[in-house]
Amino acid sequence: MSRVQAESVIKNIIREIGQECSSKGHTVSETLVAFVVKAVVLDPRNEFNVERTLTKSDVQKLIKLCVDRLLDVKSPSLDTIKMQVYFDMNYTSRDEFLHEHHRVLESRLAPVSREITDSRSRTREELESLYRKIVSYVLLSSGLGSPTDISIVREATAALQSVFPQAELGTFLSLNKKDKERQLNELTMIVTGIRLFNKDGGKGGEGIDDLPAILNEAIPATSKHIEAELQQCQQLIYSYTALIEQLEEKHHLTKVPETMWFEALYNVRQHEVFLHVILSDVIYCAKQVEMLENQLASQMEQLRTTVRAKTAVPTALVYPHFIALSNIWTGLQNEMVLLSVLSNLATNLLPFLGTHAELFPAEAMQPLLDQLNVKTDEQRLQETLGQRVNIADFKKQDWLFPETTANFDKLPLQYRGFCGFTIAKKLGLLLPGNPDIGILKHKEKYYIFSSREAAYAFAQQPEEYLLTIAEKAKQHAELIQLLELHQQFAAVTPYSQAKTNEALMIKPITKCDSSTQTDTHLVESNIVKSYEWNEWELRRKAIKLANLRQKATHSMQTNLSHMRRDNTSQVYLPKQVGTQTKRDSASNVPKPQIYLAGLRGGMSKTTHMVKINLTRDVDES
Fold first, then answer.
1. Which of 196, 176, 188 minimizes the C-alpha distance to 112?
2. How many Å apart are CA 438 and CA 436, to the nearest integer?
3. Rounded Cα gap, residues 234 and 240, in angstroms
4. For residues 186-211, b (16+ Cβ closer than 10 Å) or e, as one string?
5. What is the pLDDT of residues 399-443, one digit of tens each?
6. What angle do CA 277, 281, 284 make, to 5 degrees?
7. How far, in Å, CA of 91 to CA of 341, rounded?
8. How far is 160 from 191, CA to CA, in rounded Å?
9. In what order do the strands lie in the sheet with 445-447?
């Protein structure tokens, strides 16, 4: 049977199973049906041979087994598989969440954007209508208010007119489609920045929610809610683990089959794993929000400094600040979306926990737990504190320890950190391993154990234990994802685990003591490159030298060969010469001197004044 024919047969089987379940009042997704089909085929108890073509009776048997399993309302195993399928279909990385969110927003805004970019407005009424559409697009794209609220529309219109007056619509219409879309996005960011700045200054911000305050209130509430669920889940894990350990001594604690206890444990363990994943994303959201709040405050302060006490500011100075404000606010909106998705994801996992609660109600379990010592995972780790593998007891196995491995806490541990020995020897019991005992490196994979004895037993026959765990996973398909056995069972690898995982490529960086020595007095090399050991080569050189003695050397030089000789010339440097173009001279003019005699009078009644000029001539000076 070719690959195309096999895929067609599988699709028909999945479709038929889904239709039969629907006819009995249970709607199931094709993804869930496909997972159950692969799980049923892998289970050796069903005796399906995957290497031969399925007969008609095999197909009917497969359909019946799958339908019975999908309709089993009292199966914690089915609940766990449903939880895994749901989480795999709805959870992805932050970048993919945001990419999908923005893709949906763009698809919703596409009709409005297309109506603006394809417009051929000419009349005044058409241009006014186009401008209103641009305002609506800005509001819808930014998410800051409803375009049906008059006060919000007026504020957005005023902000848009300050950077894009209606008179520039003609220039806008002359652009091509891509330039129009680019300008629309730039206008959206600038208007968003203006409105956020006005809100910060108390001059506007109608319809803009206080996202930092909302996030600072929502993140702790979400974290507290998930931590409370995680605590309840871990309490159930500790109870089921204690009861399963008691099953080794007393095989009939209740009327419920023993396998149900293990399925219930797998169910709550898987829930714990998913809650840890969601909680880590919420914590990362809190860090991102804190960083964005600091950037928002810093950007606001820079913008206030730029526009302070200025009637007009160049657009080249303020537009980048407005665009930066818009990007920061978009980041806060993204964190709000992510937080909502994570919160809904954690809430939607709860319906997959109902079966084990019905099978093992609290009032029925409490009398059994009163007689037991229920240990937490931390208490189990404390009990094995100080136990360590002696590497001298193992010659072929490699053991890693915290003090000898730099990236010890980042190694990709097998079975999600559970002890492989207890999974194989205790019917699938999941106990956390203690890395301080030592991490066994076997075929480039890393295993930890719950006790020193378990580590010694596993290290002596690792292949046997690995096969036992694989067979256990075939009987309980939920263990494939819970224990991360996707490399062994590629047919049931979920989409989220099929991607490249950087953790799988981490190699241990081991430490060791080493020393080097550098010679202080290196031996000088005495190699005579002209040395020849060949006698005939020496004779050839001797004949060549003897022949040269009979030769005469002649030389001549022509006018065209002047470049072959050395020429020198000498010049005298210019001497320093001084000239004077003016001279200093002076002239002395005689000072006028006039003497008047007889002004004091005399014996006579009349005064006789005599005027005498004593000024010297110019020639005498």
1. 188
2. 5
3. 10
4. bbbbbbbbbbbbbbbeeebbbbbeeb
5. 888 888 888 888 889 998 899 999 998 888 899 999 999 999 988
6. 140
7. 9
8. 6
9. 398-400, 439-442, 445-447
Output the pTM of the full model: 0.75
Which letter does DSSP use for residue 353 in this model? G
Helix ranges (DSSP H) in 308-361 = 315-348, 354-359
Nearest by Cα to 233 from 377, 68, 119: 377
Instruction: Write out the two tokens for 353.
Output: 């926990």
Using alpha carbons, list the distances in angstroms from residue 420 to 49, 62, 298, 467, 579: 28, 31, 52, 11, 107
Query: Do residues 238 and 363 make contact, with C-beta atoms less than 8 angstroms apart?
Result: no
**3-class DSSP state for residue 296?**
helix
- Centre a 10 Å sphere on the Cβ of residue 273 and count the other Cβ atoms it contains: 17
Query: Angle at the Cα of 330 (from 326 to 336), degrees rounded to 5?
Result: 150
Tokens representing 499 are: 């991607």
Nearest to 325 by CA among 292, 366, 373: 292
- Digit-coded pLDDT (tens) for 354-378: 888 888 888 888 888 888 888 888 9
Could you give the count of Cα atoms lying within 13 Å of 69 in the half-sphere of its Cβ? 27
Task: Count CB-CB contacts under 10 A for residue 482.
Answer: 21
CB 19 within 8 A of CB 473: no
Q: How far apart are CA 283 and CA 289, in angstroms?
A: 10
Count the alpha carbons within 13 Å of 502 in the hemisphere toward its beta carbon.
1
Q: Residue 413 in 3-state DSSP?
A: strand
Nearest to 235 by CA among 96, 62, 378: 378
Copy the structure tokens of residue 241: 């683990």
Mean pLDDT of the chain: 84
Whole-Å CA distances, 55 to 49, 69, 84: 11, 21, 31
* 510 secondary structure, DSSP code: B
Cα distance between residue 416 and residue 483, in whole Å: 5
Residue 207 backbone class (left: φ over 0; alpha: ψ -120 to 50; beta: rest): left
Q: What whole-number distance in Å separates Cα of residue 561 and Cα of residue 567?
A: 12
In 3D space, the residue among 442, 445, 432 whose CA is nearest the CA of residue 462 turns out to be: 442
Tokens 């199966």 sit on residue:
75
Q: What residues does 596 pair with on adjacent strands? A: 611
Q: Helix 150-163 crosses helix 124-142 at what angle (to 10 degrees)?
A: 110
Q: How many angstroms separate the Cα of 392 from the Cα of each of 385, 389, 435, 495?
A: 20, 9, 18, 43
Instruction: State the Rg of the chain over Cα.
Output: 47
Which residue has 């930066």 as its token pair? 324
Q: Give CA separation, 210 vs 43, 108, 324, 410, 411, in Å.
A: 55, 25, 18, 39, 42
Are the CB atoms for 292 and 339 separated by under 8 Å? no
Low pLDDT (below 50) residues in the chain: 492-505
What letter does residue 395 receive in the DSSP assignment? S
How many whole angstroms separate alpha carbon 91 and alpha carbon 594?
A: 123
Cβ burial, residue 534 (10 Å; 0-12/13-18/19+): exposed
Identify whether the C-beta of residue 404 lies closer than 8 Å to the C-beta of residue 512: yes
Query: Which tokens in the block code for residue 448?
Result: 């930890």
